[in-house]
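We modelled the chain as a single entity of 100 amino acids. Its sequence is:
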Amino acid sequence: MAFGISRSELTRWKEEVEKGEISFLTHFWLDERFPTIHCVTKVGCSDINKLKNWGASFGLKKEWIHFYKEYPHFDIMGETQLRILKHYGLNDHIVRFKLS
């Protein structure tokens, strides 16, 4: 279950993904399979090759891409999430979602 984002944030992410940009959307998330995780970052891009290459640069496997409608994306969490958000200077995500 996702929560903690505005409609405008979701719309921006979708628009950027549709344009073939690498886009980040972090939101609170609860899933009993991951009891220690409280949020996830979706990293999406409609250009699948671009998304695969992006993921590979961070050690993510192409098999981990979620092909959800027109918004293919990786779900990143935990240490990988924190490392990537720091790499891109997305400190607002880190602070807002209490990731460090």
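As a brief sanity check on the tokenised model: The helical segments are 7-18, 48-57, 78-87, 91-96. Strands lie at 2-3, 23-29, 39-44, 73-76.
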